[in-house]
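quick q for whoever's on today - can somebody do inverse folding on this one?? i tried earlier but teh output was garbage lol. tokens:
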């Protein structure tokens, strides 16, 4: 963990450094806010920055604002005298993770740093579960595309307000992880986070599950029960699969959102709900509103600031770093020391369409850990349906083992399988076997299907079809194909 300690008091910096070095953190120091901002800009990003409030040149609060702008995922801790706790409160509203009162207590410091470390790990995991690899100010950051930067920006804004949130995305894209990140970055982070899968609760029990019930409220209610909203008091409740609740429950949930009140089953007493609601679904709520199965007023209450997570197949360039991340995770949990992937297995991961998204990828990697007994995960250790996506070139199997280009044979449904069927149909329907014409027809069809498979991305299409980028662009121009048409197909 890289930590920057910022204070104009050299003795205090020494005390903090001595405490943190027990955990083998990498420590840098700055004497004032201006120097700290410059260090974050040039040597960052840091995992955590500890800031004094009152410093020359630039105050801790001003430095906090600039550091969060430069590096939204850096956790900032404010150090302040007991008499200036109001400064710490203001800092937390501006995005600080927590505050420490002077004189600094080493035990309290390490406890807060442990919490920051856990939150850092969660944010890093969120990066992997969210959109594509892109460049940010000249730096290549895993999972930090323009889309994920927007997600971080929304999370940062949501940390300052109490707005309800709707997270959209296919199953396995990391919706609960986003909800937890919103909770961890809000002022409710010290409160409970309660997750509820609405689809897993029978319709006749969901009201009791969410709002609780009194003894004797219904058959089998032999004692009083607290609901999930009561357990989440002061924190965040995550309602997954919100599209599965009945219209009757939708009305009661709407009341909680509007009036912050609910009534347990069998009770006449209203209870105030100090709870942040984050909902998630992969259901087409707009169509459900048209059909009358989902209330429009509830939708608009939840959808004030929506977050949409794309499926893994739409961000294939994340697959390799995500797989490496999971290798490290399973190395720890399984006590292994696997280094990574051989080229053919990595090619198979990139070619597969991942209908189960991140969750399915995690299951595949764990499957490989159970099977593999060498230092790198081989193609043979992956499930059978992935093994069929690549083959070793018969010309030089050894070379194919060391080269992704020599290993890739795109045999997924979008390419080899469907292309073979298309070619067979063309040959069967053709009265004349005109090679030049059929060759051009096949080539054009091949390019279109490859663009569809890789969402119109030129670099990925060129890599996986074993063409140079120049050749691909020339052929697209020849056949009048616009890759932008396939960005969302």
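ok took a stab at it. sequence:
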């Amino acid at each position: 963990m890289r930590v920057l300690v910022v204070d104009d008091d050299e003795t205090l910096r020494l005390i903090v450094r001595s405490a943190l070095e027990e955990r083998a953190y990498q420590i840098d120091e700055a004497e004032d806010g201006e120097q700290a901002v410059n260090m974050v800009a040039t040597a960052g990003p840091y995992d955590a920055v500890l800031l004094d409030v009152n410093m020359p040149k630039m105050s801790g609060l001003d430095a906090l604002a600039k550091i969060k702008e430069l590096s939204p995922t850096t956790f900032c801790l404010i150090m302040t005298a007991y008499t200036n706790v109001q400064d710490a409160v203001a800092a937390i509203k501006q995005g600080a993770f927590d505050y420490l009162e002077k004189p600094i207590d080493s035990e309290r410091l390490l406890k807060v740093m442990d919490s920051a470390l856990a939150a850092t790990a969660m944010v890093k995991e969120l990066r992997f579960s969210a959109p594509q690899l892109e460049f940010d100010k000249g730096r290549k950051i895993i999972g930090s595309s323009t889309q994920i930067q927007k997600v971080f920006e929304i999370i940062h804004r949501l940390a300052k307000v109490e707005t309800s949130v709707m997270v959209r995305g296919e199953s396995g894209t990391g919706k609960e992880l986003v909800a937890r990140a919103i909770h961890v970055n809000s002022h409710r982070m010290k409160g409970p986070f309660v997750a509820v899968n609405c689809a897993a609760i029978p319709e006749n029990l969901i009201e009791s599950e969410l709002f609780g019930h009194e003894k004797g409220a219904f058959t089998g209610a032999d004692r009083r029960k607290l609901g999930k909203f009561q357990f989440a008091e002061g924190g965040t409740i995550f309602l997954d699969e919100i599209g599965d609740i009945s219209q009757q429950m939708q009305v009661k949930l709407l009341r909680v959102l509007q009036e912050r009140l609910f009534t347990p089953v069998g009770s006449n007493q209203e209870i105030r709900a100090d709870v942040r609601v984050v909902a998630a679904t992969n259901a087409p709520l707009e169509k459900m509103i048209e059909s009358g199965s989902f209330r429009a007023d509830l939708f608009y209450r939840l959808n004030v600031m929506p977050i949409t997570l794309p499926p893994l197949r739409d961000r294939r360039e994340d697959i390799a770093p995500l797989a490496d991340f999971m290798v490290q995770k399973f190395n720890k949990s399984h006590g292994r020391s696997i280094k990574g992937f051989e080229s053919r297995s990595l090619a198979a991961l990139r070619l597969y369409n991942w209908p189960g998204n991140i969750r399915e990828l995690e299951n595949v990697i764990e499957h490989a850990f159970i099977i593999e007994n060498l230092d790198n995960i081989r193609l043979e250790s992956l499930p059978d349906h992935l093994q069929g996506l690549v083959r070793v070139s018969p010309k030089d199997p050894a070379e194919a083992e060391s080269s992704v280009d020599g290993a890739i044979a795109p045999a997924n449904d979008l390419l080899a399988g469907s292309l073979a069927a298309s070619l067979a149909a063309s040959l069967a329907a053709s009265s004349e076997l005109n090679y030049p014409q059929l060759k051009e027809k096949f080539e054009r069809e091949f390019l279109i299907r490859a663009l569809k498979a890789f969402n119109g991305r030129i670099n990925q299409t060129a890599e996986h079809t074993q063409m140079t980028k120049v050749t691909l662009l020339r052929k697209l121009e020849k056949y009048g194909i616009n890759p932008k048409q396939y960005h969302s197909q």
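fwiw The first helix runs from residue 10 to 20. also The chain has four domains: 2-115, 134-308, 312-407, 413-486. so keep that in mind when u check it
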